[in-house]
Amino acid sequence: MKKFFKFKPDRTTGITLLLGIASIALSFLLKYAQSDFAWFIIRDVFQISMIGLIFPFIILARDKSNFFHAGLRFDKPIKYVAISIILGALLSINFIMRITDPSSLLSTPTIIRASIIMAANIYELIFFFVFLTFYFEKAFGAIPAVILSSAFYWLHHIGFQPEFELFIIGIVFITIFRIAKHWLICIPLWWIGGLGDVLITSADSANTAHVVWWRSAFIAGVILIMFYLKYPFGVKQTYEKNITS
């Protein structure tokens, strides 16, 4: 029972909560961002890069085994990516049936927007699926961790995609991640879900505001830099199913 529910918050729990709240606050500011540059600073620099990538990598790197126990793993890639491809193929059927103008998906603005979505999806996996879930589970147990991480995932969209269904989507996908405890089970599944939702089914699917190619390049660059600087590549780690306390 302690695996599912407990109450052992510590200093890191507080930091995790503050980062989650900061992400929501920055999203709220996006309501007032009118220019591409303002979006870039608020969304890409502060919300995604600093709050969602740099701080989580620094905190996880305090103990190199944290990455592995949190699910940010690269072992057995074929197995988990294959499962992800199968799940993604099933999910894609829902989106394919809703496409009304296939040619629109090949337009330059749509391709650029897709690249931004895919880069942001990696940030979401690292921040909400891996980082928040790991530290919330250490403090409160597996079930509250999934619920809290899903709530933060939903609320961090408040400034640009305030749809409650994102909370349900968070519950489903974070549960899949938590069962596997391996982030590669979400690639390409999470990409398919993100691209399909934003580009095909969302009411905002035709919106090309703030779609500039260098935004995705910047986010991808930060992700690669943080993996290079902080991820313990080459360090042999033994994975344990139970979260270390």
Q: Which series of helices and strands comes N to C?
A: HHHHHHHHH
Structural class, please? mainly alpha
Number of strands: 0
**Total number of helical segments?**
9
Q: What's the oligomerization state?
A: single chain
Terminal CA distance reads 15 Å
Give the CA-based shape: globular
Number of domains: 1
Work out the radius of gyration: 18 Å
Labels describing this entry:
245 residues; mainly alpha; globular
Account of the protein in words:
- The chain is mostly helical and 245 residues long.
- The protein has one domain (12-230).
- The chain contains nine helices and no strands.
- α1 (11-29) runs antiparallel to α2, α2 (36-60) packs parallel to α9 (213-230) and α4 packs parallel to α8 (189-201).
- The model has no long low-confidence stretch (mean pLDDT 91).
Can you give me a brief rundown of this structure?
By secondary structure, the chain is mostly helical. It has nine helices and no strands.
Write the layout of secondary structure elements.
Blueprint: H1 11-29, H2 36-60, H3 65-70, H4 77-96, H5 108-140, H6 142-155, H7 165-180, H8 189-201, H9 213-230
